[in-house]
Each structure stands twice: as C-alpha cells, then as structure tokens.
Amino acid sequence: MAAANEEARPSPDALLKAAQRETRGKFKIFFGAAPGVGKTYEMLTAARRRKAEGIDVVVGVVETHGRPETEAQLAGLEIIPRRQVDYKGRVLQEMDLDAILARRPALVLVDELAHTNAPGSRHPKRHADVEELLAEGIDVYSTMNVQHVESLNDVVARITPSAYARRCPTPSSIRPTRWSSSISRRPT
Description:
- By secondary structure, the chain is an alpha/beta fold.
- It contains seven helices and eight strands, in the order H-H-E-H-E-H-E-E-E-H-E-H-E-H-E.
- Helix content is about 30%, strand content about 20%.
- The strands form two sheets. Strands 3-2-6-7-1-8 form a six-stranded parallel beta sheet, with helices on both faces. It has a two-stranded antiparallel sheet with strand order 4-5.
- Strand 4 and strand 5 form a beta hairpin.
C-alpha cells in the first residue's frame, strides 16, 4: 500500500515546474512624457544590467528610430527575429510572440506597448501580447508615452495640438509591477 502511494505522488521536480508555470511574470513600464525622452535607451540599459546579473534576457521588439546610441545598447543582447506579415502588398515586421513563448526567456523587452499589431496577428494590440507573456510567467520590460494612456487621452488632447489614435488601457488595468519614468539620460 505504501508503495502505491509513493508512485502516485508527483516528484519534487514536477511540482517545481508546475509552480513555475503558475507564476505570473513581473511587468515594468518605462514611462515618458513624449517620444525621444530616452525610454527605450533606459529600458535597454536596465536589461543589460539584468543580463550582467545572469538573467536570461531577450529582445522581443525594440525600435531604435535610427538613434546610434540606442542601437549600441542592443550589443550583446539576443534578438528574437521578427515575424514578417504581408499586408496590402507591403511586408510588415512584427514581434514574433510564438517564438518568444517557445524560447521562454526570464525577461523579454517589448518596446512601444501601445503599438497596433498588423491584421491577422493573434492580438490586435501589443499590450495584449504582453498580457500573454506575463500569464506564461515571463517578465516583461516595456515602454509607453503618457499620450497613449487611454484614461489620459482627453487631458493630453486638451494640452497638445495632436490627436493620438494609438491607445493602451490605463496601466493599472494591465498591472505593471514596477514603473520607471524616463528623463533623457542618453548621451547628447
């Protein structure tokens, strides 16, 4: 009888794996007042520190906007190749969510949280991709500008002359674990 109970009990390794799958990833947003204030640069700098600490870090998607100092921060980081999507005769480059999930890094960098994904993607918005990564226990660093916060869009529209179509749910609804505001620290 005791032998039958021993066989029915899961191994400690199986229990540990199950517990790790049930753990939600941590989410840090690098938040800025406007484009170009250094959110992506700061996110990459923080990611490089984490990699130096031995954390498994990959780049899911980062937009450098041609800034050489930001591009230099990518050196030494593993970059997941983007998925190509044909759309109205053009080839768009999108984050490859399935490749990231298959790779299962400890931390993935996902720039521009309010991005609208190409038609045919699993989720219409990048913030939903991030939700899926977090649900799978993968930590995420992302970036976001104030004008893209859904609940602040009307306030921003009254202050600035521009309208912003790309919006993201109020960050409390996507539950960031940590915030980091960006004040440009990039080399000038």
